[in-house]
Design brief:
This protein has 402 residues and is an alpha+beta fold. The protein has a domain of 210 residues. The chain contains seven helices and 15 strands. The strands form four sheets. Strands 10-9-11-12-13 form a five-stranded antiparallel sheet. The longest helix has 24 residues. The radius of gyration is 42 Å and the shape is elongated.
């Protein structure tokens, strides 16, 4: 009788111990989408799915043209036609660059709640809370640093005021006749006297002297390169050669350009990069957005500016996602336990058009156009199964056994 009672007590103890062990080993994980009105009863981990943001850089050249002081005489003295006669500014689009970067989607944030052994809480996230993986090997902590630099430069234009209009002084003697009254016995006699008065040279004369200097420069450079100085006009002195000759020829060309600019004017180009961002809403087959307006006279302007060409960003889906064609049975859909949400990004064609003409075209993967699905909740509690994601898209990269 005593042995029977001892056996019953031992069986009861073992049963209770087994239940306790079973309760300790059990683990439950629940994933819920963060929405208005969600009530949290305990601590949990949060993660977000990413959305794709477009970074658009537009490289614009600003060309400034200033006329020369002798523009009116360019054709007369140098045979130059169609030279600028007034200052002008012209803008042109040189290049368009499009890149993407991920950011947290505020509409796709999830809460992971665990009970028991927290296998499902072994979640790896990026610095800004995007899902990176489940049960991944632990890596040493890496310091995250951010650097930003902005270079400030003064907008200086190399447009001199053309001080060197001539090699001679800017005045010329002008004969002036004056009269001196001389008294004679019977009357006064006017005796003419010639004197020279210094006065400023006319613009025509200055242009003529500048053209003469330009022709002398060209003639001298031709003789120097042709060898005429060595055989005809050399007085016995040694002529420049090798590197010295190259320097002289180069400086003569600079002087020639300076004199030509007195008639043809000067142009200067300033390059600037304008940056725009756009976040697609991920709905529909096509999506358009006016980035800015552009005109040759004013460059980049507000999108609603009238009289300028609108620059439009166009997103279009070329193919439908085959997963969207799957029809889940009502009973299986209702019995599914929500698991870990992930995304399957869609390929989107990105076009940028100016006044209807195509300026940029390329295909990109866009996260928010993709379908959202779920990994079974049982995988979150399996310590031996690891899942790795693409943080930029929220899609699955690897599922492997540890």
């Amino acid at each position: 009788m005593k042995n029977l009672r001892f056996s019953l007590i031992l069986i009861a103890i073992l049963a209770a111990t087994g239940c306790a062990l079973q309760t300790e080993m059990s683990s439950k994980t629940r994933v819920r989408k963060v929405e208005p009105g969600l009530k949290a009863s305990d601590y949990a981990m949060y993660y977000s799915l990413p959305r794709t943001v477009f970074d658009i850089e537009v490289v614009v050249d600003k060309k400034i043209t200033k006329p020369g002081p002798f523009a009116a005489y360019a054709e007369r003295f140098l045979g130059l036609t169609s030279v600028p006669t007034r200052e002008s500014v012209e803008y042109s689009i040189v290049e368009i660059r499009v890149n993407t970067h991920p950011e947290k989607d505020p509409g796709q944030m999830y809460r992971i709640e665990t009970e028991g052994k927290p296998f499902g809480a072994r979640v790896s996230l990026t610095a800004d809370g995007l899902i990176r993986g489940i049960n991944l090997p632990v890596n040493p902590e890496v310091a995250v640093s951010q650097e930003a630099m902005q270079r400030l430069t003064e907008r200086e234009f190399d447009f001199p005021q053309y001080p060197d209009l001539t090699l001679r002084k800017n005045t010329e003697p002008i004969p002036d006749t004056i009269y001196r009254l001389v008294r004679t016995d019977t009357s006064f006699v006017k005796i003419p006297l010639i004197r020279k008065v210094e006065d400023q040279k006319s613009l025509l004369l200055q242009a003529q002297e500048a053209a003469t200097n330009l022709m002398n420069l060209r003639e001298g450079r031709f003789k120097l390169l042709n060898g005429d100085y060595a055989y005809k006009e050399n007085d016995g002195s040694r002529l420049p050669e090798s590197a010295s000759l190259g320097v002289i020829v180069r400086e003569l060309a600079v002087m020639e350009d300076g004199y030509v600019s007195l008639f043809a004017g000067r142009t200067q180009t300033e390059r600037e990069t304008m940056k725009f961002t756009y976040t697609p809403n991920g709905q529909g087959i096509t999506e358009t957005n006016t980035l800015f307006s552009f005109s040759h006279g004013n460059g980049i302007e507000a999108p609603e500016t009238s009289g300028a060409d609108p620059v439009i960003l166009l997103l279009s889906r070329e193919d439908t996602n085959p997963m969207d064609q799957i029809l889940w049975a009502e009973d299986s859909k209702s019995s599914k336990i929500p698991g870990l949400a992930f995304r399957m990004p869609e390929k989107i064609r990105v076009e940028i058009k100016r006044a209807g003409e195509l300026a940029f075209a390329r295909e990109f993967l866009v996260a928010q156009y993709g379908r959202i699905d779920f990994i079974p909740a049982s995988l979150l509690t399996d310590e031996s199964t690891s899942i790795e994601f693409y943080p930029a898209y929220g899609s699955i990269k690897n599922i492997f056994r540890r």
